[in-house]
Write a structure and sequence with these properties.
The chain folds into two domains: 35-236, Immunoglobulin-like; 300-694, Maltoporin, Chain A, CATH 2.40.170. Helices cover 5% and strands 52% of the residues. The chain contains three helices and 47 strands.
Length: 744
């Protein structure tokens, strides 16, 4: 039956795609009419949030923003005027965001890489190669907070951890707010031609109305990263990228204590170098790499037989990370709404999706502790129609863990209007005869609202490293169709039991996975004013064993999400689960709770609410109840956040799992608290406190950060873990780190 469902969905994709592909092409034609010509500055520009230099008065103006939310295709509620001028060193954007009631402007944060959608905001995207695929985004709010990102393949690669050198100053006036943005040419990559024509688009967020509008109009289902629908910036003449050499040394002093041992002091130093080989390729070097300033991982509760997934947070591996993505698929309608360690979402016991390249395998042990990195190099960027990624890292020996060398090579070739094909090679060599290698090919095709992609990969390891049975291959075929109203998805994965990817995250092997999703969006004039959209959906996720074709697990979800006009979100539904356990697994290590072999069928009923993220107080609630293996489970989640002003925010997140199983009943509690204080747009204090009854440990991570010059920081970090039962401190570390970036 499930095979027939997937086949029917695939047939529907094929039948439905041509008309919608034509619709997408029509939008491109319309967007191409939006053009603004940059004006060369007649004198120096002082970036002070006031557009009073002569150059601004003679420049052309981009205006006429069109809504996507809430009334797609209608003019924006308030006008936005954008002027563009440039000189030999930089491009400048002068933004006048009109507003009839400036006292109602919403500003929630000052920190770097703030939550853009929680405030009034202005965002610019620049497609500097004018290829309709890649670009840079820069955002600010009325208080001058900064956010930037690098995008590739129209959002399939989205790197919010990219940091560029740029400046902004803002002013709130009697008629709205003004932003003056300067982006040096050395921050950007662009082709060596004259004159320059770039793709460009702007987005304005009016938060109290929860309204989004764009200069070059977009369908509601797309965001600013859809640069193939952007307008154009013309008239840039006689400009050149800088030499683009960045040298960033660091010095670090720390003191640490383990248990009752004496405090041990340490001093360390290292550096990173970034060199622009060509206008599109960047070569990075790192020596004695250090990540001590990175925020601690959020703890999670594991109620499955699979490993937990923790996201990458280290800057070196986050920058240009999208280049190394392999076999990725487009997401569904909704993801989780998270605050701290707790993720609010429809289903919370699904195994994580596999990732063929997972950078946390480098420089981190299985328990998440740091392993020293001697150094490494990385070459990333574009050369014509090719995207290139090459990474090599040498990891130092530590204790019983041998030294290792890691290599990742990635090459993608653009084809057609917005598609690509590529290859990947991964290699891990350890001291001695141990090695692990993976090679794969992938293809990604986009035709209007239809996306088709897939990959095939093979691993090679020494004899005995994997089970004797099975094969060393993994493959995927995936189809996604999404327009304003409907979304259909189908996916088939196969992972052999001998597929041993030690540079990836592979939750389970020796299985085939069939996935199907159907969703429908409803918007209507008869909805009450507080309700913006209903989006019911069904999805099925089924795993079967390759050795005998028997069922391993089948999940089905029936959900009804509601999107509210103020930006809040709610969802109700039920999740069914059929799971065949062939070997006992440890559900709770602290209490030695085991799930024994057998076939289990159980259903969870849930509801959650995530409030308006721009409000002074944002409630977040989730409750679920139902059978759990051969017992019963109730889950309570509570996650309020308080933001009295743009400087101070705090949140408390609590997750309680009340579990009854034959012979054992227990309550598992995970608590986390965050406090953030922004002294300015360059000085921040963050604290994360966590407690879990499963580990009975209290952990704290306190970070003070001063950005003393562009991309140069001072960090003061305090980490501590304490055993709650004995009130004994397990470890403590105090770290001071100074970085200084020199750009040539």
């Amino acid at each position: 039956m499930h095979n027939r469902c997937v086949a029917a969905l695939l047939w529907l994709f094929v039948v439905a795609s041509p008309a919608h592909a034509q619709s997408g092409a029509g939008m491109t034609s319309e967007a191409a009419t939006r053009t603004v010509t940059a004006t060369r500055a007649t004198g120096p520009i002082i970036v002070d949030g006031r557009l009073d230099e002569d150059g601004w008065s003679i420049s052309s103006v981009a205006r006429g923003f069109i809504q996507t939310e809430p009334r797609e295709g209608q003019p924006a509620t308030f006008d936005t005027d954008v002027r563009v001028i440039y000189d030999d060193n930089a491009v400048y954007f002068g933004v006048t965001a009109h507003d009839s009631d400036p006292s109602s402007i919403v500003v929630t944060d000052l920190k770097k890489d703030y939550a853009v959608d929680a405030s009034d905001a202005f965002v610019v995207v620049l497609d500097t190669f004018d290829d309709g695929r890649n670009g840079y985004q820069f955002a600010t709010n009325p208080a001058g907070a900064k956010w930037d990102a690098q995008i590739g393949n129209e959002g399939r690669d989205f790197n919010v951890n990219w940091d560029g050198i740029w400046s902004v100053e803002t002013t709130i006036t009697e008629t709205g707010w003004v932003a003056e943005i300067v982006i040096p040419f050395r921050t950007l990559k662009f082709a060596d031609r004259d004159p320059q024509t770039w793709g460009m688009n702007f987005r304005r967020k009016i938060r109290r109305l929860n309204e989004d509008s764009f200069w070059s109009p977009l369908p509601r289902i797309y965001g600013l990263e859809r640069v193939s629908l952007a307008g154009s910036l013309d008239g840039l003449r006689g400009i050149r990228a800088g030499r683009n050499i960045r040298i960033k040394p660091y010095a670090l002093s720390s003191g640490s204590t383990i248990g009752r041992s004496a405090t041990r002091g340490d001093f360390d130093a290292g550096f990173d170098v970034k060199y622009g080989v060509t206008p599109g390729l960047v070569w990075d070097f790192t020596v004695n790499t250090d990540f001590s300033q990175v925020e601690a991982d959020e703890q999670q509760v594991n109620l499955t037989r699979f490993s937990l997934f923790f996201p990458e947070k280290r800057d070196f591996f986050l920058e240009n990370a999208g280049v190394f993505d392999f076999g990725a698929t487009d997401g569904g309608f909704f993801g989780g709404f998270g605050a701290g360690a707790i993720i609010f979402g429809g289903r919370q016991n699904r195994s994580p999706q596999m990732r063929l390249f997972f950078s946390r395998r480098i420089g981190l042990s299985d328990d998440g502790s740091a392993v020293p990195i001697v150094g490494g190099t990385r070459l990333t960027g574009r050369a014509g129609a090719y995207s290139i990624g090459a990474l090599n890292i040498q990891q130092r020996e530590q204790g019983s863990l041998p030294g290792a060398n890691f290599t990742a090579l990635r090459l993608r070739r653009d084809i057609f209007a917005n598609s690509d094909v590529g290859i990947v090679l991964l290699n891990k060599d350890q001291s001695g005869p141990a090695y692990n290698r993976m090679a794969g090919v992938d293809a990604n095709f986009r035709f209007g609202f239809l996306t088709v992609n897939g990959f095939a990969a093979k691993t090679v390891s020494p004899t005995g490293a994997t089970p004797a049975e099975g094969n060393e291959y993994a493959a995927r075929a995936h189809v996604n169709y999404q327009d304003r109203t409907w979304q259909f998805r189908g996916r088939f994965d196969a992972v052999g039991s001998q597929f041993n990817d030690e540079l990836g995250f592979i939750p389970r092997r020796g299985v085939n996975n069939e996935f199907a999703f159907v969703g429908r969006a409803f918007r209507s004039s008869w909805f009450p004013t507080w309700l913006r959209e209903l989006r019911p959906h069904w999805e099925m996720d089924m795993f079967t064993r390759q050795d005998d074709g028997s069922l391993d697990q089948r999940l089905q979800d029936f959900h009804l999400p509601l999107t509210f006009s103020d930006g809040g979100f709610s969802e109700i539904g039920w999740n069914t689960n059929v799971e065949v356990i062939r070997a006992p697994f440890l559900l709770n290590a602290q209490r030695r709770v085991m799930i024994l072999p057998g076939r289990y069928e159980f259903t969870e009923y849930f509801g959650f609410y995530f409030g308006n993220g721009s409000a002074a107080v944002t409630p977040s609630l989730r409750y679920s109840v139902g059978n759990f293996y051969n017992g019963y489970k109730r889950t309570y989640q509570f996650g309020p956040s308080v933001r009295p002003n743009e400087r101070l925010s705090a949140s408390l997140n609590l997750q309680i799992n009340d579990i009854d199983l034959p012979g054992v009943s227990y309550v598992s509690t995970l608590t986390s608290a965050r406090v953030n204080y922004n002294f300015s747009t360059n000085v921040f204090l963050n604290a994360l406190l966590q407690y879990s009854t499963d580990t009975q440990q209290v952990s704290s991570n306190i970070r003070f950060n001063v950005i003393h010059r562009p991309l140069s920081d001072f960090f003061f970090v305090y980490n501590e873990r304490r055993d709650e039962r004995s009130n004994v401190r397990l470890d403590r570390a105090l770290i001071a780190k100074f970085t200084y970036m020199v750009a040539l």
